Structures are given as C-alpha cells and as structure tokens.
Amino acid sequence: MPKRFNFKYTGSFFIVIAVILLLIFFNFRGWLEIPKNIIYQAFSPVLKSFYWAGGKITSGLNIFFTLKDLGTENAKLKEENAKLWQENSKFKEAAKENESLRQRLELGSVQERKFIMASVIGFNPQLGQYLLVDKGLAEGVSPGAAAVTAANFLVGKVVEASQHSAKILLISDSNSMVNALTQEGRVSGIVKGKHGLGLIMEMIPIDKQIKINETVLTSGRDDTIPAGLIIGSISDIILKESDIFQKAVIAPAQDAGELETVFIVKP
Amino acid sequence: MKFFLLLILFFFVVSLQIAVLPRLEILGVVPNFILAATIVWAICEQEKKSSWLVLIPVFLFDAVAGRPFGLIILSMWLAFGFVRWLSRSLFKQSGFVSVLVLSVSGVLFYSLVFAGLAKLAEFSGLSSQTLFLADFYSYPNLLVAVLYNGLFCLLVFWPFKKLQRYFDKFSVQLQPIK
Questions:
Q1: Averaged pLDDT, A39-48
Q2: Where are the domains of chain A?
Q3: Which among A20, A51, A122 has the least Cβ separation from residue B65?
Q4: pLDDT digit string, tens, across residues A118-171
Q5: May I ask the CATH class of domain A115-170+258-265?
Q6: Residues in chain B within 8 Å Cβ distance of A196
Q7: Domain-located, residue B178
Q8: CB contact under 8 A, B77 and A20
Q9: What pLDDT shows up at residue A2?
Q10: What SS3 state is found at B125?
Q11: What is the band of A111 on the pLDDT scale with cuts at 50, 70, 90?
C-alpha cells in the first residue's frame, strides 16, 4: 500500500518557512533590534567566559605541540628583540627630531587617533571570517571603522554594529580588500584575504621591486582605514612572465585566533 | 521541566559554537555543532512532534552571530526538511552507512542552500554588505567543510541518542500514576 502524503507535516514545514521569511523582513525593517539586543545581552557574559576559557585551554595545549621548538624559537626571538631594540631607539630619535622640526615650521603636532577598546567574545565563520566584540553603536562604534591591536596591527573592519555589539570582518576574509603599500619601496597594491587562510597582495606593478620580509602597511586610500597600520610582511613573491601585475603572499602580523582585545578607530 | 533543561542546553550549545569551537578550525573551516545537531535531530526525530524545538538554538545562534539575520535559520530548516525526507524515503536511520550518507548530504545541502540564499540576499538588497567578492568557499574549502561537518555529525549522533533516551525516561518518570 503506497504511503500517504503527510499534509500536516508538509503544511507545518511551509508555515515555519513563512514565519522565518517574515522574521527576515522584520529584521530588514529594523524591527528586530530590541529582541536581538536582549538576546545578545543575555549571551554576552556567558560568551566572554567561554571565550576566555577556550583561549586558556588552547594555549595550555599548544605548549605540548610546540615544546620541541621552544629552544630554537627562544634564540630567534632574542636576536629579533635585540635588533628591534636598536631600531626602536633609532626611531625614537627620529620622532623627536620630527616633533622639533614640526614645531619650528609651525606645522602643528600629529593628530592622535582615538580608539574604543573592545573585548572579543566570539568568532563566527558562517559567512566570512569575523569577530564578535562587546562594543556597539552606544559606545561610539560605527560601521566601516578599522579595528587594530595594541601594537597597531590591522585586524579588520567593522561591518555591522548593533547597540552593544559589533562584527568585525577580518582582513583574512575573502571579501576583505585593503589598499596597501610596502614600507621601504612604497609600492602600492591591494591586500585581499584568502578564505581565512592568509593574505595576498595583488595589483603590484610588474616593474616595481618588492622584497621578502618587507613590511606592508595600509596606504590610507580607503575612506575609513587610516594610513600606517601594519598588515604583515611579504613572505613570498609570485611573478609570472605572462602577467602584467605581480603578487605577494603576506604573512599577517597578527593571528586573529589569539585576540582577546581589539581597538576600534573612532572616526 | 524538560523544556527548561533543553533551554539551558541550547544556551550552552550556542555559546560553545560562537566562543569555543572556532578554535578547532581546520583550513578556515570551523565545525558547526548546531548544524550537526540539526541534522542528527532530523535523522532521529521521526515520529515525534518536537521538530520545532530545533529552531530555538538555531534562532539564538542567528540572532547573536548571523550576518545577515535569517540566512542561517532558513538554510538549517531547509536542510532539516531535506534530511528528514531522505531518511524517511530512502534510508533507514539505524545503519552507520545511512547515518553517514544522511549527514554528508545534509551538510552539503546546507552549504549550497546557504550560498544560494546569501547571493540572493546580496542581489535583492536584504544584505547591506557585499557578501561575496570571491567565489563561494572555493571548492577545496567546501570539500573540507562538508567532510569536517559530516564527521562532526557522526560524533554528535550517538550522544544525541543517549540524551534522547534520557529525556524520554525523564518524561515517563514524571507521568502521574493512574
């Protein structure tokens, strides 16, 4: 005997779809902001605790995987530290000289940026690589603002902001495009994300020289991303004879998975 | 009481998905526990009238982390319906092979529907941000996502069955003695 078509089940299935479409419409009109904020407020303390706990467990477990490399890494870091100390002292002198020249020429001091400190409480790769943070419109976060680390490394850009939360699209996401230039050669290009797996700098003119380990910075040509933020360093150069542009693989300055706090640039 | 316990469980699961599971990322793919639970629920909840309960954790997840709101819940509900239809018409739920095939089919269906709806949202202006400049996922990434989440479904299946038996026993114990 053939199975009877289950009208009741099919009917309720389509009713649920209709309800979901209605909710999507309400969200589009902005009528779901209050319930979403309430849900978010309920989740926020729990998410913070879970994110913190997850970070502690991961860093604890990582010790076992990296144990054998600790000695080599330690020596490498000491050498790098000494080199950076020397460079830092040189830059401090240059900064003092710059300040004094600006005063003499009456150029005024460099405008300092203002930041909003936000804690990372989650990470949702469902539609791109982005972080959830606990600051939103009420705290001065605006869509399009750049997000950086304490060391001025570019993390991403705010793509959505609710009252007390925001979503930051990481630069490693495929939808992310940032105008950039190399620090020494001042060669410009566009840094794009590669599905969360890394960064690639494209549209580099074929006649321009770029070097491995050269630092890549933001150029400031984007409306909302200031100039001078560190994106990463060149780890590989892709140059084919038939191409009119060369590409460079960029090692990001910051691993987004390790972030607990970000600073959102105030417009 | 059962509903209250389920609500706490849903809260825990959604928090785990957003705050902890991203640390298990492989090649840019994070295991989707909520998708796995939805598919497993579709495989297991054959005759019961509690299908709508699966929408609660999905709705909470979408409300907190979805972008834009609605894509995740719609895609998961369609995947739920698809897996339920497959398990009723083609596969018996108890065999390992059928659970594996249903899991992988469900994850693949969800990924494709989600990509399609995201493109639709972008073109129809429901999403204010450009969602896809690059091709969706790139095929290797999609393959990793389907295999990883399919495996996750298998891992969720047996604990889910045990939990289901626990809640059924719990409901029976609370029945008044006639």
A1: 84
A2: 11-64, 115-170+258-265, 177-254
A3: A122
A4: 999 887 655 567 888 999 999 999 988 999 998 889 999 998 888 888 889 899
A5: mainly beta
A6: 25, 28
A7: no
A8: yes
A9: 47
A10: coil
A11: low
| Number of residues that this document lists for chain A | 267
Contact status, residue A134 vs residue A121, Cβ threshold 8 Å:
yes
Q: What is the pLDDT of residues B15-39, one digit of tens each?
A: 888 888 888 877 777 888 899 989 9
Tell me phi and psi for residue A79, to 5 degrees. -65, -45
Q: Do A43 and B60 touch (CB under 8 A)?
A: yes
Spell out which residues of chain B touch residue A46, defining contact as CB-CB under 8 Å. Answer: 11, 15
Q: Mean pLDDT throughout A196-225? A: 87
- Check residue A226 and report its DSSP letter: P
Same fold, A115-170+258-265 and A177-254: yes
Of B16, B65, B130, the CB nearest to A132: B65
Residues of chain B with Cβ-Cβ distance to A192 below 8 Å are 134
- Number of domains forming the structure of chain B: 1
The whole-number pLDDT of residue B135 equals 44
Return the higher-pLDDT residue of A242 and B41.
B41
Angstrom distances, CA of residue B57 to CA of A87, B15, B73, B164: 52, 10, 9, 16
- Rounded CA separation B14/A9 (Å): 27
What homologous superfamily does CATH list for A177-254?
Answer: Rod shape-determining protein MreC, domain 2 (2.40.10.350)
Q: Chain A contacts of B52, Cβ < 8 Å?
A: 12, 16
CB atoms within 10 A of CB A4: 6
Section A89-101 average pLDDT:
79
Q: Which of A40, A58, A129 lies nearest to residue B23, judging by beta carbons?
A: A58
Say whether B66 and A13 touch across the interface (CB within 8 A). no
Chain A residue with Cα closest to B16: A50
Q: How far is B159 from chain A (nearest CA, A)?
A: 22
Check: complex ipTM more than 0.90: no
**How distant is the Cα of B60 from the closest Cα of chain A, in angstroms?**
7
Q: Reduce the DSSP state of residue A32 to 3 states and report it.
A: coil
**What does the pLDDT read at residue A206?**
87
The alpha carbon dihedral of A150, A159, A141, B70 has a sign of negative
